[in-house]
């Protein structure tokens, strides 16, 4: 990993406002198209609570609930540098310390929680 890169895992919940309303677990986009941003945020907050309280592990939750194809890797996005991710996502990741989990981050893809892993 280059010195100016970070590594992160994330959990993405898509909603009506997401630019692509389909995912590996909702190929037709039926659920996503009927999910409001508020509902997506509420679900994400509950999942984040479970992770922070220690009731659930980030990678288990990501592999079950994330709308990103990274779900099959427990949400791991691998290393990335500046300019490779959507701006709000990049900024949130670079602000975190390794092991920290972000609050809700909004992008064109949907709402995320991010765990910096490197």
UniProtKB/TrEMBL annotation:
Query: Per its UniProt entry, which superkingdom is the organism in?
Result: Eukaryota
**Compositional bias annotation for Basic residues:** 12-22
Which reaction is catalysed here?
[protein]-peptidylproline (omega=180) = [protein]-peptidylproline (omega=0)
Q: Where is this region: Disordered?
A: 1-30
Q: Which UniProt keywords apply?
A: Isomerase, Rotamase
Q: Name one GO molecular function term.
A: peptidyl-prolyl cis-trans isomerase activity
Reported EC number(s) for this entry are 5.2.1.8
Instruction: Tell me which InterPro entries the record gives.
Output: PPIase_dom_sf, PPIase_Pin1, PPIase_PpiC, PPIase_PpiC_CS
Q: Where is the PpiC domain?
A: 3-118
- Provide the Gene Ontology terms for cellular component: cytosol; nucleus
Entry keyword Lyase:
no
Known function: Prolyl cis/trans isomerase with specificity for phospho-Ser-Pro bonds.
Family recorded in the similarity comment:
Belongs to the PpiC/parvulin rotamase family.
Q: What is this protein called?
A: Peptidyl-prolyl cis-trans isomerase
User: Whose protein is this, by species?
Assistant: Nyssa sinensis
């Amino acid at each position: 990993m280059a010195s100016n890169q970070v590594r992160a895992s994330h959990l993405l919940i898509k909603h009506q406002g997401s630019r692509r309303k389909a995912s590996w677990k909702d190929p037709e986009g039926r659920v996503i198209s009927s999910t409001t941003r508020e509902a997506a945020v509420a679900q994400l907050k509950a999942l984040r609570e479970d992770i922070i309280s220690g009731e659930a592990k980030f990678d288990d939750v990501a592999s079950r609930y994330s709308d990103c194809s990274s779900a099959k890797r427990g949400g791991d996005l691998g290393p990335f540098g500046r300019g490779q991710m959507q701006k709000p996502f990049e900024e949130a990741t670079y602000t975190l310390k390794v092991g920290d989990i972000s609050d809700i981050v909004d992008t064109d893809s949907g709402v995320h929680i991010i765990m910096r892993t490197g």
